[in-house]
Write a structure and sequence with these properties.
alpha/beta; Rossmann fold; pyruvate-formate lyase- activating enzyme; 2 domains; six-stranded parallel β-sheet; 17 strands
Length: 472
C-alpha cells in the first residue's frame, strides 16, 4: 500500500484580524508539518507500507504541480492535514486526488474535522476522518483497509457506510509521549525550513508536550482536550541531537505552554548543557509560570526568544478573557526576560468582549511600557469551538453560525466575524493600525533595532518590515 500525507497549500488561507497592508506576499518562514511527520513516523514503525509526505507549501507547488505529483506518486491512500483556515485548499487538493484516481481513499485529520465532523464527512470527496490524536487511529485504519477488517471497531474514525454516518467514538489520548517515535523529518526537505527570526537556518519545530491546562475563552484547546502531557527531558534532547545530525541547529518549541512544569524545563536545560549542544531555540510561555532563574537557565542552554501572550493592558479585560494573569505579572516577566538577555515577543488582542476604545488605548500604551522587542497585535476574532464564539452567538454579537456555514460550503468570499460590540469593523482596524504605529514608529525603538542588527541580511529584513509599516 502506498500512502501519501499532504500538507496543503495556503493560497486561500482565511485572514481575519490583521491589516492587509502588513500581510504582503513575503513569507516569514516555513515550519515543517510536525503533525504529519508524527503520523508518518508512527505508521512507518507499525506497518510495512510505503509512506511519503508532500509539503506543498515549502515546495511552493501550484495546483498544477500538485496534480503532477499525485499522478506520479499514484498513492492508494492520501491523508490531508486540515485546519479551518485552509479548508478551501484542502478541498481543492482532495478534488485533484479524486480526479487523478477516483479509487484513491482520502482521509482528513486535524483541528477542523474534530470541530465539524459531520460537515466534513459530507464533502463528497472525503472517505474518512481521524478524530483526536492521529498516530494510532490512522495506522489502524491503514492496517484495517489492507486486511479488509471491520473498521467500525477502530476508535477515532468517522466515515460513511450505506449512506449513513458512522462515528466510532473517541479514543484515549496518548499518555506516554516518550513512546512515540520522533517525527519522520527525513521525509521532507529539512534544509528548506526557515524563520525570519532565526539566528541560524534551517529551523525545525519540536513539540515537548501536548495539551494546555488553561481555559482562555478565545482558544479552542479546551474543546480539543485539556489533558496536559509532557515528554521527558532526555527524549526531547535526543530528538534535538537527531536534528543536529541533519544540519539543524535552531528549534521552535511549539508547546502551548512550555513552562507549566518548572522542574522539567530545568531538566531540559541541564540536559542540553551537559551534552554541550550549540543550538538556539525559542518558546511560548505564560508570564505567571516563569521566573528569572528559569530564564537564566534557558538562556545558558541556548534559548534566544520567548513569546508571551499578554492579550490586554487592562486587568478587567484579562478577567473577561479568563487569561489567569495580571498586569503586574506581565511587567515582572518582561523585566526578568530583559535581565536574562532574552528577546521577547508580546501578543495582544484588540476588540474583546465589553472592551471600550479607552481600554484599547490602555493596551496600546501598555505594549510600549513593558518594552518587548517585538509585538504582534491582532483583532479578536471568535473562532469555532471556543467559549468566545458561543458567547457571541448567545449575546447576538455574532448574528449566525458563520463558521458552521463555511464548514458546510467553503467559499473564498467568506468574511469571518469580529467582536463588533463597542466598535465596528472599520473602527477596530483603525485602532489596530494605530497600535502598530504607536509601537514601531518610535525613534528610540528604531535606533535600538539598528544597534541590535547583527548582519546585512538581518538589516534588509528589518528594513523591509519597516517599509511595510509606513503603509498602514
Amino acid at each position: 500500500m502506498k500512502v501519501l500525507l499532504i500538507n496543503p497549500p495556503d493560497f486561500h488561507m482565511i485572514k481575519t484580524n490583521f491589516p492587509d497592508e502588513l500581510e504582503g506576499e513575503e513569507k516569514a518562514g516555513y515550519n515543517p508539518p510536525l503533525g504529519l511527520l508524527y503520523v508518518a513516523s508512527y505508521a512507518l514503525s507499525h506497518t510495512d507500507f510505503e509512506i511519503e509526505v508532500l509539503d506543498t507549501q515549502v515546495e511552493e507547488l501550484t495546483y498544477a504541480d500538485i496534480e503532477k505529483e499525485i499522478v506520479r506518486r499514484n498513492p492508494d491512500v492520501v491523508g490531508i492535514q486540515t485546519m479551518t483556515f485552509t479548508l478551501i485548499d484542502v478541498m481543492m487538493v482532495a478534488r485533484i486526488v479524486k480526479k487523478a484516481d477516483p479509487k484513491t481513499i482520502i482521509v482528513l485529520g486535524g483541528p477542523h474535522v474534530n470541530i465539524y465532523p459531520e460537515e466534513s464527512i459530507e464533502q463528497v470527496e472525503i472517505d474518512f476522518l481521524i478524530l483526536g490524536e492521529g498516530e494510532v487511529p490512522f495506522t489502524e485504519l491503514l492496517n484495517g483497509l489492507n486486511r479488509n477488517d471491520d473498521l467500525s471497531l477502530i476508535k477515532g474514525l468517522v466515515f460513511k457506510k450505506d449512506g449513513k454516518l458512522v462515528n466510532t467514538g473517541s479514543r484515549p489520548l496518548i499518555d506516554n509521549l516518550d513512546e512515540l517515535p520522533h517525527p519522520a523529518r527525513s521525509l521532507v526537505p529539512v534544509e528548506k525550513y526557515w524563520s525570519v527570526l532565526a539566528r541560524s537556518n534551517p529551523v525545525t519545530t519540536i513539540m515537548t508536550s501536548r495539551g494546555c491546562p488553561y481555559k482562555c475563552i478565545f482558544c479552542d484547546r479546551p474543546h480539543l482536550g485539556k489533558s496536559f502531557r509532557f515528554r521527558s527531558a532526555k527524549n526531547v534532547v535526543d530528538e534535538m541531537e537527531e536534528c543536529i545530525q541533519m544540519g539543524i541547529a535552531e528549534f521552535i518549541l511549539y508547546d502551548d505552554t512550555f513552562t507549566v512544569n518548572r522542574q522539567r524545563v530545568l531538566d531540559i536545560c541541564a540536559e542540553i548543557v551537559s551534552r554541550k549542544l550549540k543550538i538556539f531555540w525559542d518558546v511560548r510561555a505564560r508570564v505567571n509560570l516563569i521566573d528569572l532563574e528559569m530564564m537564566e537557565k534557558m538562556k545558558s542552554a541556548g534559548c534566544d526568544r520567548i513569546h508571551f501572550g499578554v492579550e490586554s493592558g487592562n486587568n478587567e479585560i484579562l478577567k473577561v478573557l479568563k487569561k489567569g494573569i495580571t498586569l503586574n505579572q506581565v511587567e515582572t516577566a518582561f523585566q526578568a526576560a530583559r535581565k536574562a538577555g532574552l528577546t521577547t515577543l508580546a501578543y495582544f488582542m484588540l476588540g474583546n468582549p465589553f472592551e471600550t476604545r479607552e481600554q484599547i488605548l490602555e493596551t496600546i500604551g501598555f505594549s510600549r511600557k513593558i518594552r518587548p522587542d517585538f509585538v504582534h497585535i491582532s483583532l479578536t476574532s471568535p473562532f469555532p469551538a471556543t467559549e468566545l464564539y458561543k458567547l457571541g452567538l448567545e449575546r447576538g454579537i455574532i448574528k449566525r453560525d458563520y463558521w458552521k456555514e463555511f464548514a458546510e460550503n467553503p467559499s473564498a468570499d467568506f468574511l469571518p466575524p469580529l467582536w463588533e460590540e463597542n466598535l465596528n469593523r472599520d473602527e477596530l482596524f483603525e485602532m489596530l493600525r494605530l497600535a502598530y504605529k504607536k509601537f514601531y514608529f518610535r525613534p528610540t525603538y528604531i535606533f535600538q533595532q539598528i544597534l541590535k542588527t547583527g548582519s546585512w541580511n538581518e538589516f534588509k529584513r528589518k528594513a523591509k518590515a519597516g517599509l511595510k509599516m509606513f503603509k498602514i
